[in-house]
Design goal:
Blueprint (H helix, E strand, L loop, with lengths): L20 H12 L7 H8 L3 H14 L2 E6 L2 E6 L6 H10 L3 H11 L3 E7 L4 E6 L16 E5 H10 L5 H6 L1 E2 L8 H7 L5 E2 L5
Parallel strand pairs: 4-5, 6-7
Antiparallel strand pairs: 1-2, 3-4, 3-6
Helix pairs in contact: 1-4
């Protein structure tokens, strides 16, 4: 005799594996863009979690060795440690349970050529700014929309001429990576664009 039972599924497959939904949210931030370091206020902005929950989770994740921390001035930064024994498996789990946009962001975040990325879901297009214009890997990206690659030099030149043919992406789209410390970002602001960050982007 076989007895079967069913239980209500969690909102996220990962959430059911962890005792804390806050921890699952934090893992997504760190593992979707694992090369980036974050301070607590950035994490608060990206996740919408209260600062005390963030402090608790980064402490736990640091204690087990998934994150390492460094201090610069009065700020403490946290970053995923790729040498953590379960790092590849955890990142794989996050990506497998990600939305199409999150999976796209995860690919862009570790692509060695990518500097900035913008998504205009309304007009179904994305713009990726790379170090060079030669992006042969573009065909393999799991983008939810068609991707246009542009080199950093071409992007900056178009901003200076105030007539980029991809202006709609900056006017109506969102910042996929949140790399506001990139020097090109000052050029974007100087050209008058105020691009909002995508959901979950620090």
């Amino acid at each position: 005799m076989t007895i079967t039972s069913s239980q209500k599924k969690s909102a996220s497959p990962l959430a059911g594996l962890f005792a804390s939904s806050s921890r699952e949210t934090m893992l997504r931030v760190f593992l979707l863009d694992p090369h980036r370091a974050y301070y607590q206020r950035q994490l608060e902005s990206a996740t919408g979690l209260p600062i005390r929950a963030i402090q608790r989770e980064v402490e736990r994740l640091t204690t087990v060795g998934l994150l390492y921390r460094r201090t610069e001035g009065n700020r403490t930064y946290y970053q995923a440690d790729p040498d953590f024994p379960c790092y590849p498996e955890l990142r794989g789990m996050v990506i497998k349970t990600a939305t199409p946009l999150e999976a796209f962001r995860a690919e862009l975040a570790v692509h060695p050529e990518v500097r900035l990325a913008f998504l205009d879901s309304h007009n179904a297009q994305a713009l990726v700014v790379g170090k060079t214009g030669a992006m042969s890997a573009s065909e393999s990206l799991s983008s939810p929309v068609p991707v246009r690659w542009v080199s950093s030099e071409s992007f900056v030149d178009a901003l200076a001429n105030a007539a980029p043919d991809w202006a709609d992406v900056l006017n109506e789209g969102t910042d996929v990576l949140g790399r506001r410390d990139d020097p090109i970002w000052r050029r974007i602001e100087a050209a008058g664009y105020q691009v909002k960050k995508g959901k979950g982007v620090p």
